[in-house]
Amino acid sequence: MQSDPGYVAVHERKKSSPQNARLLERIAADAASAVIAAVAVAPAICTIDKSIVENASGKRRLVESIKHSMTELVTKPQKFFLSKTFGLVAMVYAGTYLVANTTDTFLSYKKGNEDITKVTAGTAKFAGTSSTNILLTLVKDRTFARMFGTGASKPIPLPTYALFCARDCLTILFSFNVPPALSKVLPDNIAGFSSLSTAQILAPAGCQFLSTPMHLLGLDLYNRGEKLSVKDRIQAIRANYFKSSLARIARIVPAFGIAGVLNSKCRYYMMENIERRMKNDRVALG
């Protein structure tokens, strides 16, 4: 009877049922890790993003804007955490890390890989995370530009959208795909960090020296229109490049450095617990 194909098929489904049953738990762990990471770093990112936009528009100087946001965070925390700006930032990074996490989960599930804690760095993750991050960041940046820019609210020009897309693709590449490769050439246990954790901080931070001009040009096109000369654009970017680069490093380290490490650690421990229970289920089923 055991040679009957129908019996074998049913038996195989029963053997794989623990993994099927745990898939929703794994997705829940992916989501929980993403939200924890996003909410933990959103206050810093929200403050810096707002200051960069206000500084570029001339509404407030960079340091003045940061002080204003920090004062509100301390004196009116409920207003700060319930604000649209905080919600938009948390949405961007929770969504981005959720897609990154679930991509790893579904790739592992599809291959039947026993190591469900594995982190990938392939094309699928880049395509998913970059498209998600670009879409959500454009929503956030459009709202920030309208809230904290100069003059009346106006449509975002297409060149600004294109520059923001290029900026975000570069950031995603350096945040999710470069760190695994970079970690192979870095020493382990730097100041208590693993080589991967160190790479997750260094790669996106270094990327900002390349992406900041795209960001500043996009904001300048929005704030001053598209009819200015190339010389005027270069002068505007040069005037704000260094401090904006440092500000963007200060925001990207929490966004894809600290949040990346926190997301990875949370997901690893949650998945490790789920994997242990999956093994117990397999043993129970024989």
Automatic annotation (TrEMBL):
One of its GO terms (cellular component) is mitochondrion. This is Sequence orphan. It comes from Orbilia blumenaviensis.
